[in-house]
Design brief:
Blueprint (H helix, E strand, L loop, with lengths): L124 E3 L23 E4 L22 E4 L11 E2 L15 H4 L6 E2 L15 E2 L5 E2 L4 E2 L5 E2 L11 E3 L2 E2 L6 E6 L5 E9 L3 E2 L1 E9 L5 E2 L5 E3 L3 E3 L9 E5 L2 E2 L6 E6 L5 E9 L3 E2 L1 E9 L1 E2 L4 E4 L3 E3 L9 E5 L2 E2 L6 E6 L5 E9 L3 E2 L1 E9 L1 E2 L4 E4 L3 E3 L9 E5 L2 E2 L6 E6 L5 E9 L3 E2 L1 E9 L63 E6 L2 E6 L9 E4 L2 E4 L9 E5 L2 E5 L8 E5 L2 E5 L9 E5 L2 E5 L10 E4 L2 E4 L9 E5 L2 E5 L9 E5 L2 E5 L10 E4 L2 E4 L9 E5 L2 E5 L8 E5 L2 E5 L9 E3 L3 E3 L9 E3 L4 E3 L8
Parallel strand pairs: 1-2, 2-3, 3-6, 7-14, 9-15, 16-23, 18-24, 25-32, 27-33, 34-41, 36-42
Antiparallel strand pairs: 4-5, 8-10, 10-11, 12-13, 13-15, 17-19, 19-20, 21-22, 22-24, 26-28, 28-29, 30-31, 31-33, 35-37, 37-38, 39-40, 40-42, 43-44, 45-46, 47-48, 49-50, 51-52, 53-54, 55-56, 57-58, 59-60, 61-62, 63-64, 65-66, 67-68
Organism: Muribaculaceae bacterium Z82
InterPro entries: Cell_wall/Cho-bd_repeat (IPR018337), DUF285 (IPR005046), Liste_lipo_26 (IPR011889), LRR_dom_sf (IPR032675), MBG_3 (IPR043772)
Keywords: Repeat
Length: 874
């Protein structure tokens, strides 16, 4: 049913942007219909031989040379473009092209030329006088930012079907001449188009942009038309296949004496050394040619010439002219405040009490009349007046006190380095530029406290404004704290080892950066040195040291055993940044903080100790057997509770380490089991053994992660074993969907591991980025195929309308291209995936407004008949 076709699938430079040459000599492209994107991103190509390409069947050339930013020239003389419909963005970002000959292009079937030459910033001229545009519908931004163009020939442009020309000439700063025929029209939805055409533009009769622009430099779109008598414009009239009479050479005319009669001088015109003939090549009309002042001959091209040319001449009253050079010029306003707009105060000039007429007796020119400073006005006599008088006015800088100044980061944490956050300065909706419009200086921006930024105006702005930001003390939670001595013999005196605190590679200064206090530092047991931040530091850290019973000595008898503090934790791994998810697919229940267990101190397989009784002496508590002896350096099961005794037989409390394993003994000496909150952290002591758990632990069907210090992790993201996990504030490992930081993540059921790539959940496929965040951005390119993701993140299948265009997503979700049979009908999907409608495909098949291939029917307005197999019956 289908003809064999050759399709170039993908981009030659995809993933190879550093490719410097391409050999196309062996490529057979006679059947290729789509060359869109063919050289997309070939930014390193400096030359390209296209002489072997057969383009006779090509229909799409959009984005064909996009980003070929190193090409300086292209020879397209062999291109057959008679079937091409799409040329949009064809040369987009070809920023080094200096010339382009498109005279061989047949554009009669092209429908889209939008952004065709966007950012071709090195082109100086462009002759498109061979273009046929009668079917073109879109020309928006066609020459946007062609900043080196000086002339542009659009004389054959038929704009009858064009729906938008928005920003067609924006950024063409040097464009002085645009040739356009009588079929040219500029189409825009609004009345005013700002910056739509460059400042150098001059119409065929001399109309300049300053003649028609508003105070802010914008022009009404109606001025973008040919400049003809009675209807001024900014373009130059030139009909197809003619010479613009505007460009012919003309001898200047002398001044003529005023007689009261019309002055009708003849003119002398020549082009390429050939004199033009009145009546054959042109005809004349006149303007303002009776009264004294400036008059003009209007030359209208005929025959081989078209358009108009103005040749000025003067009509003067005989006698001496009056010199205006010493005449006072009165301005309607002598002081303005800068607002970015051109300033043109009104001008009044009088001679001997008589008010002169602008345009008849003098012309006015302004300079330096936009930016802050002294602006100038020049009044130059004409007609019966001569000489130039000048005046000036002032444009004052605008005060920054009326600007909105915002600090981009209002709070910083102390790290010893200067903080220099940037600011935004908004003046009436215009964001100002640092260095050009203002400078920044900083004060008090290193130490903790309130820092200050001074914004000082410059150039067009004056005055200063200030904004503040804070520098907050840094927490000591990450500090390394050590003591000069970790063990003492008890002697009844307080022990105060010196403390060293290091943070970020720096040793902190006592009294300035922190203070030290001591806890439980007299009696035998575990003592602590507590470091509390001050100045640039906050929070506290503690380090423990031991006070031991001296061998053979008797110390002072203390009271009941104190509860020793938990030993210092190993460094806590830092919480990773949350990976940077869709409408909520579901929610989960927060399990809450684990409850304190009711059971504690189980025997754990330790046999009951012999009968005895508790004893207390100056060194502490011990257990005496009734038949003599006592437990020492062992676990003991006494009355159903487990205790630990040291080598001397005294009962231990607090954290202890036995055979490399940590245990916790409460203040009564009983070994704790299950969950325990100690020092503000939760620990899990395994039931039966009391051993402190680390790593993953399953408790009551829920998984928790215990750090190397034993403290339960509840900090959010955890990276472990090459995978990411999410821990709730209760410490419970999350499973299923979670909304975190405004993004959705999927934690695999059973393992809790964060999913990436494709994941099927509840029968629906989702795509998780490498960060784990669910993708819901619309089109996704993955594994060489395009997919559509709904706002919920769900992968779409079947028909999908996107931006008014229909696409077909296979059951795998992959976007279909080429012919596809759906529900008994055949459809044609372009290389972009867009469903073709109301057009011929492969030259023999017709697809109608529904996209379905027609069979056994008259089509295309009833002009052609297609058979049961869909083929046009010629």
């Amino acid at each position: 049913m289908f003809y064999k076709r050759v399709v170039i699938d993908g981009q030659i430079c995809q993933g190879n942007s550093d490719l410097v040459s391409v050999d196309l000599s062996g490529m057979d492209t006679k059947s290729v219909r789509d060359m869109a994107d063919m050289f997309y991103g070939c930014s390193s190509l400096t030359s390209l031989d296209l002489s072997s390409l057969n383009t006779s069947n090509v229909e799409e050339m959009w984005l064909m040379f996009y980003g070929c930013s190193s090409l300086t020239s292209l020879d397209l003389s062999n291109f057959n473009t008679s079937k091409v419909e799409g040329m949009n963005s064809m040369f987009l970002n070809c920023s080094s092209l200096t010339s382009l000959d498109l005279s061989s292009f047949d554009t009669s079937n092209v429908k889209d030329m939008s952004t065709m030459f966007l950012n071709c910033s090195s082109l100086t001229s462009l002759d498109l006088s061979t273009f046929s545009t009668s079917n073109v519908e879109d020309m928006r931004r066609m020459f946007d930012n062609c900043s080196s163009l000086t002339s542009l020939d659009l004389s054959t442009f038929d704009m009858s079907k064009v729906e938008s020309t928005i920003y067609m000439f924006r950024g063409c700063e040097k464009l002085a001449r645009i040739y356009a025929g009588s079929l040219f029209s500029y189409t825009h939805n609004g009345n005013e188009v700002k910056d739509s055409i460059g400042p150098a533009i001059v119409g065929g009769l001399g109309t300049k942009i300053e003649d028609v622009s508003l105070d802010d430099g914008s022009v009404n779109s109606s001025w973008i038309r040919p400049d003809v008598p009675g209807s001024p414009g900014l373009l130059t009239l030139k009909e197809p296949k003619t010479i613009a009479v505007t460009d012919v050479e003309a001898l200047s005319l002398p001044a003529y004496e005023y007689t009261g009669d019309a002055v009708t001088p003849s003119v002398s015109l020549a082009h390429d050394g050939k004199s033009l003939v009145d009546g054959t090549d042109y005809k004349l009309s006149y303007e303002n040619n009776v009264e004294p002042g400036m008059a003009g001959v209007i030359v209208e091209g005929v025959g081989a010439y078209s358009g108009y040319k103005r040749i000025p001449f003067a009509i003067e009253i005989s006698g001496p002219k009056i010199d205006l050079s010493s005449t006072k010029v009165v301005l309607s306003q002598e002081r303005y405040e800068y607002d970015g707009k051109v300033k043109r105060p009104g001008v009044a000039v009088s001679v001997d009490g008589a008010l002169l007429v602008e345009g008849e007796d003098y012309d006015v020119a302004y300079s330096d009349n936009t930016n802050a400073g002294d602006a100038k006005v020049a009044v130059t006599g004409k007609g019966n007046f001569t000489g130039t008088a000048t005046a000036s006015f002032v444009i004052d800088p605008a005060p920054l006190s009326r600007a909105t100044v915002s600090c981009l980061s209002t709070s910083h944490v102390y790290d010893g380095a200067e903080k220099r956050p940037k600011v935004t300065v908004d003046f009436g909706g215009r964001v100002l530029a640092e260095e050009k419009d203002y400078t920044l200086s900083y004060a008090n921006n290193t130490e903790v406290g309130t820092a200050r930024i001074t914004v000082e105006g410059r150039g067009n702005y004056c005055d200063t404004v200030q904004v503040v930001f804070s520098i907050e003390p840094v927490s000591l939670s990450g500090a390394q704290v050590s003591v000069s001595q970790t063990s003492y013999d008890y002697d009844g005196s307080a022990k105060r080892p010196s403390v060293t605190v290091r943070m970020g590679g720096k040793t902190l200064v006592p009294d300035a950066d922190y203070s030290v206090s001591y806890v439980d530092n007299v009696a035998v047991g575990t003592a602590r040195a507590v470091v509390t931040g001050k100045g640039n530091y906050t929070g506290s850290r503690s380090v423990s040291f031991a006070i031991q019973q001296p061998t053979g000595g008797d110390g002072q008898t203390p009271g009941a055993p104190d509860t020793p503090s938990k030993p210092s934790n190993p460094d806590t791994p830092s919480t990773p940044n949350n990976p940077s998810k869709p409408s909520s697919p579901g929610s989960t229940v927060n399990p809450g903080v684990p409850s304190k267990p009711g059971q504690e101190g189980s025997q754990g397989g330790i046999p009951a100790a012999p009968a005895g009784s508790w004893k207390h002496d100056s060194a502490g508590w011990w257990y005496a057997y009734d038949k003599g002896g006592y437990p020492a350096n062992v676990w003991a099961n006494i009355d159903g509770k487990v205790y630990r005794f040291d080598a001397s037989g005294y009962m231990l409390t607090g954290w202890i380490r036995v055979d490399g394993v940590w245990y916790y003994l409460d203040s009564s000496g009983v070994r704790a089991e299950g969950w325990r909150s100690i020092g503000g952290e939760w620990y899990y002591l395994r039931p039966g053994s009391g051993a402190m758990a680390t790593g993953w632990a399953q408790v009551g069907g829920t998984w928790y992660y215990l750090k190397s210090s034993g403290a339960m992790d509840h900090s959010g993201w955890l990276y472990n074993g090459g995978k990411w996990y999410w821990l709730e504030s209760s410490g419970a490992m999350a499973e299923g969907w979670r909304s975190i930081g405004g993004e959705w993540y999927y934690l695999r059921l059973g393992s809790g591991a964060m999913a990436t790539g494709w994941a099927q959940v509840g029968g629906t496929w989702y795509y998780l980025k490498s960060s784990g965040a669910m993708d819901h951005s619309g089109w996704l390119y993955n594994g060489g195929k395009w997919y559509w993701l709904e706002s919920s993140g769900a992968m779409a299948t079947s028909w999908k309308s996107v931006g008014g265009t229909w696409y077909y997503l296979k059951s795998s979700g992959a976007m279909a291209t080429g012919w596809a049979q759906v529900g008994g009908s055949w459809y044609y999907l372009r290389s972009s995936g867009a469903m073709a409608v109301n057009t011929w495909v492969d030259g023999v098949y017709w697809v109608g407004s529904s996209g379905a291939m027609a069979t056994s029917a008259w089509v295309d307005g009833g002009r052609y008949y297609v058979g049961a197999d869909g083929v046009w019956q010629k």
